[in-house]
C-alpha cells in the first residue's frame, strides 16, 4: 500500500488520498462498471469529478448547500461525493426507488438546493419546494432550461460546451459538514446523519491500516452505494489505496462466484442475500467451470449481521470464511475482523491504525454503567468517526449522542480479548438488503388502510437467511381482506426491502384468522 503523507492529528481526507493516487497511477483503472465495461482511470475519475464540480458551481452550489443525489451505483454518484465535499456542500444520497411517502420527510428535513438524477423522468418524484436546480446525467434538453421554475442542466451537454473551464479538484478548507445520510432509529421517521470531512479521513485511515490489502488490488462493489457503509468500504477506501473497483449492478450480482474467480478479486463486501447465492453457485454441478479464487481473497460481510451458521456454510462451500465487522451510519466503521486479528463469530476489534485515540467501544447496562466481559448491554461508541448530529433534530441528537458517545440501540457484549459480539437490538429497527428498516414506519403504513385497526411489525431471525420483517394486523370489525392485498397496499408506500415478508391477520379480540407468507426476492 502506498503511504500518503498526513498530519498525525488529522488523517488525510478522501480527496487528498485520491489526488495522491492520480499522481502515482494516473492511467490505472479506478472504477469499472461491470455491466457496460466502462472503465475510468484515476485521471479520468478526477476529470469526471471536476466536471460535476464545475457544473454544480455554475448552478450556484456553495458552502453549506444540500444537494440530493438519487442515482444508481455509477461513477457519477462517486464523483458527486468528491465534488460536493470539495465545495464544502452537503452530499445527500438516497435510493432512486424511494417512494413519494419515503421521500417526503427527507426533502422536508434536508431542504436541498438541487438534485442530481439520471434522467428527467425522475424529476417529478424528487422536486420539493426548496429545489432550484436539477442536474441530469442524460437527456436531450438544452444545456440549461427552466421546468416549473427549476433550472435543469444535462451534465454531458454542459461539459461539451464548457471545455477548458474546469476548476482543479482540491480538498475543502477547514473541516466542513460534507454528507447527510438518512437512517432510522425506530422512531417512525428518518434522521439525517451529518458527518464532517475529517470523519471520512479518520475512518479510511483506520480501515486501510487494518485491512492489509495492497495497492492495485481488485475490489468488487456489489452493494447499493447510497448507504454510507457501502460508499466507504466498497469505493472511497479502495480508491484511497489505488485499487481497481469493479461496480456490479442488476443481474450481474447473480453471478458473484464467476466474477470473483474470473476477475481474481482480492476483496469483496457482500450481504447475506449475496452470500446465499455464492453458496448455491459453489455447490452447483458447474462449480468447476468458475475457476480458482484469488489465494488472498478477503470476503467481508456488510450491511447486515451474519450468523455463525451462515458464515460456516460459506466457508464450507467456498473455502473462505467471511470477515465480519460492525458500523452504523452515525459512527461509520467501528470494528473489523481482518487478517491477524480475526475472532470467529465476533464483530472484531475497534479500529485503531493511526486514528487519534482510535475508536472506543463500551457495553453499558440500563443505568449507563460499563458491563464486564460476557455481559450483554447496549453498544456505545465514541471516537473520531462520530457524527456531528442529526440534521435539524436537536432532541433526537441529545437522546442518542450523550457526552460525546453514540448510544446505538444495538445489544452486544465484549469478550475477554476485547472483541465485540452482536446480541440483537433494543429498539424497533432492523436491516434488510443492507438497508435500514424502521418498524414503526411499516406499522404506520399498514394503519393507513381503511380496514386495518392496528398493526405491529416484528423481526424474525433465520440463521441462514438473516433478519426478515413480518407483520401482524388487527382488522376492523366485520372487515375481510387477504394478507396479499395488504402487502400490495404497503408496496405503494414502502421500498421493496421494507415490505413485510409475511402477514398474520387478526379480528378484533386478537383471534388469528390466518397467516400468509410471501416470497422474499434476492
TrEMBL record:
The keyword tRNA processing does not apply. It holds the Pfam family AMP-binding. Residues 441-510 form the AMP-binding enzyme C-terminal domain. GO terms for molecular function: ligase activity. It comes from the Bacteria. Residues 21-391 form the AMP-dependent synthetase/ligase domain. This is Long-chain fatty acid--CoA ligase. It comes from Ideonella azotifigens. Keywords: Ligase. Transmembrane segments: none annotated.
Amino acid at each position: 500500500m502506498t503511504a500518503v503523507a498526513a498530519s498525525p492529528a488529522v488523517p488525510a481526507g478522501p480527496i487528498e488520498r485520491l489526488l495522491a493516487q492520480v499522481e502515482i497511477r494516473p492511467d490505472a483503472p479506478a472504477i469499472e462498471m461491470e455491466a457496460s465495461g466502462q472503465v475510468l482511470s484515476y485521471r479520468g475519475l478526477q476529470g469526471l469529478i471536476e466536471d460535476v464540480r464545475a457544473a454544480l458551481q455554475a448552478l450556484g452550489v456553495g458552502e453549506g448547500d444540500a444537494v440530493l443525489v438519487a442515482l444508481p451505483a455509477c461513477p457519477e454518484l462517486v464523483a458527486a461525493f468528491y465534488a460536493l465535499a470539495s465545495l464544502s456542500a452537503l452530499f445527500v444520497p438516497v435510493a432512486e426507488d424511494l417512494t413519494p411517502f419515503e421521500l417526503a420527510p427527507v426533502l422536508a428535513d434536508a431542504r436541498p438546493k438541487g438534485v442530481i438524477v439520471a434522467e428527467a423522468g425522475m424529476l417529478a418524484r424528487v422536486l420539493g419546494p426548496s429545489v432550484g436546480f436539477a442536474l441530469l446525467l442524460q437527456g436531450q434538453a438544452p444545456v440549461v432550461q427552466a421546468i416549473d421554475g427549476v433550472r435543469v442542466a444535462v451534465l454531458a451537454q454542459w461539459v461539451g460546451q464548457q471545455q477548458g473551464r474546469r476548476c482543479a479538484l482540491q480538498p475543502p478548507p477547514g473541516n466542513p459538514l460534507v454528507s447527510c445520510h438518512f437512517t432510522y432509529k425506530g422512531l417512525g421517521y428518518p434522521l439525517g446523519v451529518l458527518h464532517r470531512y475529517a470523519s471520512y479521513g479518520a475512518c479510511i485511515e483506520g480501515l486501510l491500516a487494518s485491512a492489509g490489502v495492497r495497492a492495485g488490488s481488485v475490489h468488487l462493489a456489489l452493494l447499493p452505494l447510497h448507504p454510507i457503509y457501502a460508499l466507504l468500504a466498497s469505493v472511497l477506501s479502495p480508491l484511497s489505496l489505488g485499487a481497481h473497483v469493479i461496480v456490479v449492478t442488476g443481474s450481474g450480482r447473480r453471478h458473484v462466484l464467476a466474477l470473483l474467480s474470473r476477475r481474481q478479486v482480492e476483496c469483496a463486501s457482500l450481504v447475506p442475500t449475496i452470500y446465499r447465492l455464492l453458496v448455491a453457485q459453489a455447490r452447483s454441478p458447474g462449480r468447476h467451470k468458475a475457476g480458482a479464487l484469488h489465494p488472498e481473497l478477503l470476503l467481508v460481510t456488510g450491511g447486515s449481521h451474519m450468523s455463525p451458521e451462515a458464515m460456516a456454510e460459506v466457508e464450507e462451500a467456498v473455502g473462505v470464511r467471511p470477515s465480519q465487522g460492525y458500523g452504523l451510519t452515525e459512527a461509520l466503521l467501528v470494528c473489523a475482523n481482518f487478517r491477524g486479528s480475526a475472532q470467529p463469530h465476533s464483530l472484531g476489534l475497534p479500529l485503531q491504525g493511526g486514528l487519534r485515540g482510535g475508536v472506543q467501544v463500551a457495553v453499558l447496562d440500563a443505568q449507563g454503567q460499563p458491563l464486564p466481559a460476557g455481559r450483554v448491554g447496549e453498544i456505545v461508541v465514541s471516537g473520531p468517526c462520530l457524527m456531528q448530529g442529526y440534521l435539524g433534530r436537536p432532541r433526537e441528537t441529545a437522546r442518542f449522542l450523550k457526552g460525546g458517545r453514540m448510544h446505538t440501540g444495538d445489544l452486544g457484549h465484549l469478550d475477554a480479548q476485547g472483541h465485540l459480539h452482536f446480541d440483537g437490538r433494543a429498539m424497533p429497527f432492523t436491516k434488510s438488503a443492507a438497508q435500514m428498516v424502521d418498524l414503526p414506519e411499516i406499522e404506520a403504513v399498514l394503519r393507513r388502510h381503511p380496514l386495518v385497526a392496528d398493526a405491529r411489525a416484528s423481526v424474525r431471525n433465520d440463521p441462514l437467511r438473516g433478519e426478515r420483517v413480518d407483520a401482524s394486523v388487527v382488522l376492523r370489525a366485520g372487515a375481510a381482506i387477504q394478507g396479499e392485498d395488504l402487502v400490495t397496499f404497503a408496496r405503494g408506500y414502502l421500498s421493496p426491502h421494507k415490505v413485510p415478508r409475511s402477514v398474520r391477520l387478526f379480528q378484533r379480540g386478537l383471534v388469528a384468522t390466518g397467516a400468509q407468507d410471501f416470497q422474499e426476492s434476492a
